[in-house]
Design a protein that fits this description.
By secondary structure, this protein is an all-alpha fold. The protein has 2 helices and no strands.
Length: about 50
């Protein structure tokens, strides 16, 4: 079971720092701070076939 996220949770400081450094680098992809994006990209979306 995935634990419920509190809407009051803010992005941890170390993540904010990482995203700031990333945005100032030569990285050219999308950068999202919101919990929804972080949760979706943190899960395994692989398809496992038998």
């Amino acid at each position: 079971m995935i634990p419920r996220l509190s809407l009051s949770e803010s992005t941890p400081k170390f993540v904010q720092n990482f995203l700031e450094v990333l945005s100032k680098s030569e990285f050219s992809g999308d950068i999202h701070h919101d919990n929804g994006s972080r949760l979706v990209t943190a899960t395994d979306n692989s398809m496992h076939l038998d």
